[in-house]
């Protein structure tokens, strides 16, 4: 299970098994989506699979995740998402009404994100082998001329911005899965980030890095970028927005909200001179209203993320080994 968590074990699986087997310069970039030059057009291409349990949760469903997860991967390269494929793997015995409910949610999410589902596939596996249903989506988008957003582009001096409170999605899933009550319903932050990214590009076309901190949470995303760009990242611990209900739930469950998955948040590395303009553009968008500057890039400790605590000390923020909460997307 740890190999599916987006942490060190996932990275080892990709680097030592899949990348050597598949090869190719586009795969070697290991971005949220592959950037392809075809016939003069610059395309972003991404694929993702969704195995969340339960299928429905506060704030969304596996259908919403299947659209927003792939759309967001495309948006993290600055692309305008256009088209999706959709594959359903159904377990023998799943009710048609359940499949229809998921399909309706998926279609509504696609329309909301401004993308069209243009092709798909359906397979059925024997009872006991599919946990209801799984979904795979792949997406294509167009990257505007002059936009170059990659995890290798972070440089010392860049400002790190988080688009809103972290840890919400994973805690929402866990609360339903385990039947936990925290005095207030925690809803997933599942959302399409394409519009927010376009607003940010309107303020600064030279965004350096974007990443949606899904599996492995904020900590994994920051470490991936630090290692890809060979820069150090310093985060002000108290600047990272964590909702009180998420902090309380994580304290009860023994989790660190920095490592809990999000499905409607992004991390941006932007030039310091453009940080205020980008932050203002984010605040003007509903999905960036609570955006905050949380840190910066430095020449020190390249490839490492450290947090400055409220007491003036520092701590290393490691890449997670596996996943605190499996099957959350």
From TrEMBL:
SUPFAM superfamilies: PurM C-terminal domain-like, PurM N-terminal domain-like. Residues 156-301 form the PurM-like C-terminal domain. Residues 32-143 form the PurM-like N-terminal domain. InterPro entries: HypE (IPR011854), PurM-like_C_dom (IPR010918), PurM-like_C_sf (IPR036676), PurM-like_N (IPR016188), PurM-like_N_sf (IPR036921). One of its GO terms (biological process) is protein maturation. It holds the Pfam family AIRS. Belongs to the HypE family. This is Hydrogenase expression/formation protein HypE. It comes from Streptacidiphilus fuscans. The gene is hypE.
